[in-house]
């Protein structure tokens, strides 16, 4: 184990934190659930560096794309997204979590994936998702992650704005997003989204509420 690597016990704590985050973002997700509505919807846009990006709804058969996306995230990006670097997680565990992330409950969940064509084939470079709260469908918890080599191109912002359109169609008026307090890029990006917002930080975790209606 290299210097700075978490111990086995610490890694268990990390995975427990990640599992808890999954339960928060995907409450009620069921294996074999139908894909989100408008499953054939797709759009394209360009990035600041000239990349051609396609965006569509995430599907249950996208699990391998999510595994590849995770494998292209730096420990730093993993930490900012999952509250832990997850450097020692096995590919089997990644695959299991990816299948759960890809299997949505279409009654109250949606996710968009950003795709790019490479010489090796199609790759996922980012995912944005939301889950409406049980009993409070006007409120949805959201999250977004981008591959390190495609950050800073405006792709995440565009993907998130597209996601908000689908959230509003479902009657969502408030989007909440939680991240580590040091994740200034995401926090400032949400604050500059143009929507009224409220920010609160507690014990190193910042929660932002966007009022999108």
Protein described:
The chain has a single domain (about 10-210), classed as Gcn5-related N-acetyltransferase (GNAT) (Aminopeptidase, 3-Layer(aba) Sandwich). The chain has helices at about 10-25, 65-70, 75-80, 90-100, 155-170, 185-190, and strands at about 40-45, 50-55, 110-120, 120-135, 135-145, 175-180, 195-200, 205-210. The chain has an eight-stranded mixed beta sheet with strand order 1-2-3-4-5-6-8-7, sandwiched between helices. Helix 2 (about 65-70) packs across helix 4 (about 90-100). It is an alpha+beta fold. Strand 5, helix 5 (about 155-170) and strand 6 (about 175-180) form a beta-alpha-beta unit.
CA(first)-CA(last) distance:
49 Å
N-to-C order of helices and strands = HEEHHHEEEHEHEE
Widest sheet, order of strands: 1-2-3-4-5-6-8-7
CATH class: Alpha Beta
Helix content: 25-40%
Strand content: 25-35%
Number of strands: 8
The main β sheet shows up as: 8 strands, mixed
What is the count of distinct domains? 1
Shape: globular
CATH architecture: 3-Layer(aba) Sandwich
What's the alpha carbon Rg, rounded to whole Å? 17 Å
Alpha plus pi helix count: 6
Which residue ranges are poorly predicted, with pLDDT under 50 across at least 5 consecutive positions?
Answer: 1-36
Task: Give me the secondary-structure category.
Answer: alpha+beta
Quick rundown:
It is built from six helices and eight strands; from the N terminus they run H-E-E-H-H-H-E-E-E-H-E-H-E-E. The chain has 213 residues and is α+β, with helices and mostly antiparallel strands.
